[in-house]
Structure formats: C-alpha cells, structure tokens
Design a protein that fits this description.
49% helix; mainly alpha; 3 domains; 4-stranded antiparallel β-sheet; Arc Repressor Mutant, subunit A; 360 residues
C-alpha cells in the first residue's frame, strides 16, 4: 500500500492489541478497555494501597476511544467493576487534587479471570504474541536470538505512539464535523453566535448517534419551528439557542420531526390529537395536541386570562362606586365606622351572631 493512499483503513495505523481468550472471558468491549487501563497503570507514577492508579474523565475516554459511545463506555466500565476486574475511586484528595472528582482506575491483578494454569490471560501477554502467525515466530517462553528485539519492548515503545496517532486522527475528524455543523447553525440561525465548550461537547455527543446531515436537518427544524421562533403566541420570546437542538438526542428528534410536513397518525391512534382527532400530536408544546390545536389553545388561554382580568376590574370598580355613594373613600374606613379593625374581626362577629341565632 502506498503511503499516500487514504482509501484503505487497513493497518495504516497500529492496531489495539488484546488476547482473544481475555475477550471471551470478559467480553470484547471490556477487554479493550481493560487492556488500556492496564497500559496506563503501568506508566502511572501514582501509587495508592500498593497499586498504581491513573485518572481519566469520561470525555477523555471518548477522545481515546471514539468508536465507543458514551453509554457503551459506561456500561463496559461498570461491568469490569462488577466483575472486580478493576477498581474505580475518586482519589483526588489522596494525590493533592482536593477538588478533583475525576475517577481513578487500577486493575485487580489478583482476579482469577486474569489468570489460568498457562497464564494465557495475563494482560501483558498480549504483547508477546505478535509472531503467532509466523511458523518461525517466537513463542512466549522461547529464548530470543542474539541481537533480536524483544516484542514486549516494541509494544511498550509503540503503544503510546499508536494511541496518540489514533486519538489525533479521530479528534481531527470529529472537530471538522463539529465545525461543519456549527457553521451551518451560524449561517441558518444566528450569525453572531460564538461556539463555546458546552456547544462543542453537546455536538460531539450528538454525532455519536446522528450524522452531520441529520444535525443540519435539525438546525433547519429549529429555524422552521413556530413554537421556538415565538410565532405561536403574540410577543413571545424566541428560543433559538444551540441547546434547543444539541442538548440531547430527544431534542434532535424533536427538531427533525418539525421538518416533516406530513406527520402521520399511528395505526392505533395513540398519537392522535385529542382535540381535533384529525391530525397527529406534535412532539413539542403540549404533546397531546397537534400544532394547530396547541396554537389555538394558547390563544384561547390568553383570551380567557384577559376576560378574567377585565371582570375583576369591573367588580372592583362597582365596589368602589358603592363605597363612594355611602360616603366612604375606602373599605377600611367603612369597617372602622362599623367598629371593626379588620375584615376578619367583622367575619367573626357575623359568625358568632349567626351561631347565637341558631341556638335560640
């Protein structure tokens, strides 16, 4: 393969190395992560309870292994902890990082799953099997010919390069995708908006389950949404910030649904608008109503609130007019003329008089 050939994904980068037997015992995803934890522990200078530990945030895990989703990483790490293959603790205080809540990891080397009679599941052995497909390749216990380089040393020297190269390539691709999505948002929604770390993190998370084109379509959905543009209620504030697209997968689905001009009713009628019973209910606003009925419902609420306010004002005006006809400027003045200091005192007096009449 030519060095400049970018069409193939085969072996231009050094692969991650794991033992098949380890993958069979603990699971493929777990084996990959466990091998990396072992690798970083061997290079860590942080010792606690006679074991080496290293720290890594979930975001750093995703940067190192972009082929795993956030949920896959968390599930695999939890499985390793449940099987007592690794330990995970917050040791920031132990290593002088008082306010650091990042998880620290170490391998439980005493776990029987990592060993058998032939030591075939020893994590370090994955570096000793590089010649296994060569009929003249060296086995684990064969002596090395004079002047031959130990495969373990080759792995030790090159694994850091492999991880770094893979991470850099993955980051460059993801960063280019983030920039493409953000540029489209700026072009379509807000030309003055500047991207921040939260926006980058949210877009990266969404790119795990959606393509760049789908996220662009979600941007179009926000642009077309009457609800988010403040067109469903008069004088309503628009909600066009990036978080209304990228903060969750559900939010992306919501915006993609806005783009669908024909939102079909399900065969069982479970998403039918409960007011008109003719159109499918929307995913935003009030989910039991379609967009049109929800918009009309909001207008009716505004009209009802205005009528209620007007009725209250009319009642107060009539009461004030009656007080003025009786020669009082306020209700408090009328109470004092009747010998009461407060409305509660008058109510108690009336109640006691009624009780007396009922007894008689």
């Amino acid at each position: 393969m030519k060095k400049g050939d970018n069409m193939s994904l085969l072996l231009d980068e050094r692969p991650l190395v794991i033992l098949p037997k380890l993958a069979v015992k603990v699971g493929l995803n777990e084996a990959i992560i466990l091998q990396q934890i072992h690798y970083w522990c061997q290079r860590s200078e942080h010792a606690y309870e006679k074991q080496r530990w290293f720290f890594k945030s979930m975001e750093q895990w995703q940067d190192e292994m972009p082929f795993f989703s956030n949920s896959t990483l968390k599930r695999a790490i939890k499985n390793l902890i449940d099987k007592k293959l690794i330990k995970s603790e917050k040791l920031g205080k132990e290593f002088g990082k008082k306010f650091d809540n990042t998880n620290w990891y170490t391998v439980c080397m005493s776990n029987p799953l990592l060993h058998d009679d032939s030591n075939s599941c020893d994590l370090s052995e994955s570096t000793n099997r590089m010649g296994q497909n060569d009929p003249k390749g060296l086995g684990q216990n064969d002596p090395l010919p004079l002047g031959q380089i130990d495969p373990v040393s080759i792995y030790t020297e090159t694994t850091t390069e492999t991880t770094t190269e893979t991470t850099k390539n993955a980051r460059s691709v993801i960063n280019a995708q983030v920039k493409e999505v953000w540029d489209y948002y700026v072009q379509k929604i807000d030309s003055k908006c500047k991207i921040n770390d939260t926006d980058k993190r949210q877009i990266k998370s969404r790119l795990k389950n959606y393509t760049v084109d789908e996220l662009k379509a979600a941007v179009d959905g926000l642009h077309a949404s009457d609800h988010h543009n403040g067109r469903t209620v008069s004088n309503s504030t628009p909600y066009l910030q990036p978080k209304y697209i990228f903060r969750s997968d559900d939010q992306v689905r919501l915006m993609l649904n806005v783009q669908k001009t024909n939102n079909p009713i399900k065969p069982d009628g479970s998403n039918c608008c409960k007011k008109c019973n003719r159109r499918a209910a929307a995913l935003h606003g009030a989910p039991e109503y379609c967009d049109e009925c929800h918009s009309q419902r909001l207008k009716n609420q505004e009209i009802a609130a205005a009528r209620k306010l007007k009725a209250e004002q009319e009642v107060r005006a009539r009461a004030q007019a009656q007080l003025e006809e009786e020669g009082f400027s306020s209700y408090e003045e009328k109470l004092k003329s009747e010998g009461f200091n407060s409305p509660i005192e008058k109510i108690r007096s009336i109640t006691s008089n009624l009780s007396a009449k009922l007894k008689n």
